[in-house]
């Protein structure tokens, strides 16, 4: 065996070992966090957690019904706003903006938004929606979450539609289809599984956000269905309860953290399973 071949093998084993150790390091902490949530959170889950409003601080009992309802409403608003905008923008990038400088500029903006800290989005929405109105509201929280969700959907839709063969478009044009019909009725339909996966990943992305909601929907201690008023959310409630001095708050924070974490985990796993099935 010559020296260069031996050197390459040694380098390969070294980097393979380092990669294995890095993966093991990350998985160790992942399972440690999930295990900690499972041990400390599952035992505090009960019916009252979902059906009761909070009791006065320091008293036992009560639940987080207000936070569950508020979180669902805010996330639904964000999804309703972010999904159509993200899909339409992704269609534009994939079908009409491939050779456009303007589209490339917008792609750079989307890439920046993906890595943008969520607290910055919250501050921007606060300045645009909350400051002029003069009070916090759940709708503003939904807008902040939509801004975080849109880049994920845009990138996924763009990539999934690019995977559709060019021949599919040419066949549709040959049959007399208009460009918008090709985009929406042929290409989008062919890529619908991947696009749906992007939507699921986007929902999973925004479901665990806290910082933008502190600036927008804020929080309250009662159940409300009105998104024009301050609205509770699970993430903000967990933050406040975990920082509070009461043992009952800590128990409910553990239970809510367990539910939220595993709900996001399941959504992510489902999305990845769907896209893997699509590949094969």
What does this structure look like?
- This protein is mainly alpha-helical and 280 residues long.
- It folds into two domains: 3-44; 47-279, MetI-like fold.
- The protein is built from twelve helices and no strands.
- It has helices at 3-41, 47-51, 65-96, 101-115, 118-133, 138-162, 166-174, 179-190, 192-207, 211-215, 234-243, 247-279.
- The protein is globular and about 70 Å long.
- The two termini are 40 Å apart.
- The mean pLDDT is 89.
Write the layout of secondary structure elements.
Elements: H1 3-41, H2 47-51, H3 65-96, H4 101-115, H5 118-133, H6 138-162, H7 166-174, H8 179-190, H9 192-207, H10 211-215, H11 234-243, H12 247-279
Helix pairs in contact: 1-12, 3-6, 3-9, 4-6, 5-6, 6-9, 7-8, 9-12, 11-12
Give a short summary of the structure.
The protein is mainly alpha-helical and 280 residues long.
Question: What is the CATH topology assignment of the largest domain?
Answer: MetI-like fold
CATH superfamily annotation of the largest domain: MetI-like
What is the beta-strand fraction?
Answer: under 5%
Tell me the number of structural domains.
2
Helicity level, as a percent range?
over 70%
Order of helices and strands: HHHHHHHHHHHH
Number of helices: 12
């Amino acid at each position: 065996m010559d020296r260069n071949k031996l050197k390459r093998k040694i380098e390969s084993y070294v980097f393979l070992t380092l990669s294995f150790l890095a993966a093991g390091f990350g998985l160790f902490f992942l399972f440690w966090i999930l295990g900690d949530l499972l041990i400390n959170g599952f035992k505090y889950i009960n019916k009252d957690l979902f059906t009761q409003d909070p009791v006065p601080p320091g008293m036992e009992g009560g639940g987080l019904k207000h936070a569950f309802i508020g979180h669902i409403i805010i996330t639904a608003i964000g999804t309703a706003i972010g999904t159509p905008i993200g899909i339409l923008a992704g269609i534009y990038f994939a079908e009409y903006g491939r050779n456009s400088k303007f589209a490339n500029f917008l792609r750079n903006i989307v890439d920046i938004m993906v890595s943008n800290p969520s607290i910055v989005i919250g501050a921007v929405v606060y300045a645009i929606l909350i400051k002029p109105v003069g009070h916090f509201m759940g709708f503003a929280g939904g807008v902040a979450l939509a801004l975080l969700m849109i880049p994920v959907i845009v990138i996924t839709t763009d990539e999934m539609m690019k995977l559709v063969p060019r021949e599919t478009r040419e066949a549709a044009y040959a049959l007399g289809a208009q460009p918008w019909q090709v985009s929406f009725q042929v290409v989008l339909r062919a890529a619908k599984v991947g696009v749906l996966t992007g939507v699921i990943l986007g929902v999973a992305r925004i479901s665990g956000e806290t910082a933008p909601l502190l600036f927008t929907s804020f929080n309250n201690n009662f159940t409300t269905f009105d998104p024009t008023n301050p609205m509770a959310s699970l993430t903000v409630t967990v933050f406040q309860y975990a920082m509070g001095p009461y043992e009952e708050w800590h128990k409910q924070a553990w239970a809510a953290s367990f539910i939220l974490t595993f709900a996001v985990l399941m959504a992510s796993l489902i999305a990845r399973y769907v896209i893997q099935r699509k590949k094969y």
